[in-house]
Each structure stands twice: as structure tokens, then as C-alpha cells.
Amino acid sequence: MARIQELNQVYMKEPDFDKIVPVCFRKPMEGEKVHAMSNADLLKIVTNAYPTVEESQGSKVKLGKAMSKLGFDGYTHSHLAYYYAVPIEAA
């Protein structure tokens, strides 16, 4: 049992969204038209790149905090956060 728990530690770690966000997204350049994405949309992109990230409300909140901390512009509408970000694979 201890061996199984030891092997699962890799999957039990909290994802570091401060490191994940710059890998998956970039800030739009000045004058670049970008459609604002909700945390749910952003999280789908993150989970495609990082399958071990859980799609949960907590992950959406942590992702939103990381986006704000890293200086991505955004707004809230009807209690949902939206951010202006360009997915790296689309860049």
C-alpha cells in the first residue's frame, strides 16, 4: 500500500498554474483582436496540455487567480471571469 501511494504522489501534487499559464497562453499584442475566454474555456485548453489537471471549480478559481497575478486583462460578467488570452498553439 505504501508503494502505491508513493507512486501516486506524482498525480496527487497540486498543479502550479503560475507555471502552466505562460506555457499555454500569451497576452494579446496591442491592437490584436482577441475574444475573451471564460475560466472554463481556459481550463479546457490547460487540461488538453496537462491531462493530470483536474477539471473542477477549484481549478477554475486557481487558474483565474494565476491569470490575474500574471497580468492578463479580464472582466467579470454574471459572476463569471473572462480573460483576454491567446492560446499558444493558436499563436
Structural class: alpha+beta
| Strand proportion | 15-25%
Number of helices: 4
The best one-word shape is: elongated
Please count the beta strands (DSSP E, at least 2 residues each).
Answer: 5
Spatial extent as radius of gyration: 15 Å
- Major sheet characteristics: 3 strands, antiparallel
Secondary-structure element series = HHEEHHEEE
- Point out poorly predicted stretches: none
Strand order of the largest sheet: 2-4-3
State the share of residues found in helices, binned by percent.
40-55%
Measured between the Cα atoms of the first and last residue, the distance is 45 Å
Mean pLDDT reading: 87
Overview of this protein structure:
The chain is α+β, with helices and mostly antiparallel strands. The protein has 4 helices and 5 strands. The protein has helices spanning 2-12, 17-24, 39-49, 57-69, and strands spanning 25-26, 37-38, 74-77, 80-83, 86-87. A 3-stranded antiparallel sheet has the order 2-4-3. Strand 3 and strand 4 (80-83) form a beta hairpin. Helix 3 (39-49) crosses helix 4. The protein is elongated.
